[in-house]
Amino acid sequence: MLIVLFMRDAIVPINGETQDLRLRRLTGVETGAAPPRVMVTAAFDGFSAPPGGKVLLALCSDRDCQSVLRTDQIDDPRLGTMTVFLAVARNSVAAGRLIVEHGQSAQQGEPTPTTW
Known about the structure:
This protein is mainly beta. The chain has one domain: Immunoglobulin-like. Helices cover about 10% and strands about 45% of the residues. Strands 3, 4, 6, 7 and 8 form a five-stranded antiparallel β-sheet that branches. It has a three-stranded antiparallel β-sheet with strand order 1-2-5, with no helix packed on it.
């Protein structure tokens, strides 16, 4: 029973429902000025990646996420949080969004502005 509890996502197939790809919070903290460094933390409702798929956090230099500054894979999206350290100025990270890639398709969440 314990094995099934801990390996549920690998054993039980995920149904066809889509994940909630909204960021609940995207906060940034300036950690250095010379050279510039920031720490950005994204909070979201945890969920499992689809089998063979991956969940990404895209950080953007504009509020509409048309210009992606950096994209990182979220190792365990069930935790519902991701922290990224960047060597950029604070005003460089305007927004972010979650992306789920599975094969050739991708689902993108709505852009969320960064709060400083």
